[in-house]
Design brief:
Region (Disordered): 1-52
Mean pLDDT: 78
Structural class: mainly alpha
Order of helices and strands: HH
Shape: elongated
Helix content: 40-55%
Number of domains: 1
Length: 52
C-alpha cells in the first residue's frame, strides 16, 4: 500500500475528521484487572431468574 503524504492526509482529516488518532498501543489506557472483576460482579448480581 502506498504511503500517504501528510498534506493529503491533513486534507482528508480536515473534511472527514481523524478516524484513528496517532497513538501508539503502549500509550493507550488498558483495562485493569479491577474492571473485569466489576463486570463479573455485575453479571452475577443481574442473572435473570430463569437462569438461577
Amino acid at each position: 500500500m502506498p504511503e500517504v503524504n501528510k498534506s493529503s492526509r491533513h486534507a482528508v482529516n480536515k473534511i472527514f475528521g481523524e478516524a484513528l488518532p496517532d497513538i501508539a498501543p503502549d500509550e493507550r489506557d488498558t483495562d485493569s484487572p479491577d474492571d473485569d472483576a466489576d463486570r463479573d460482579r455485575w453479571l452475577r448480581n443481574n442473572i435473570p431468574p430463569h437462569h438461577q
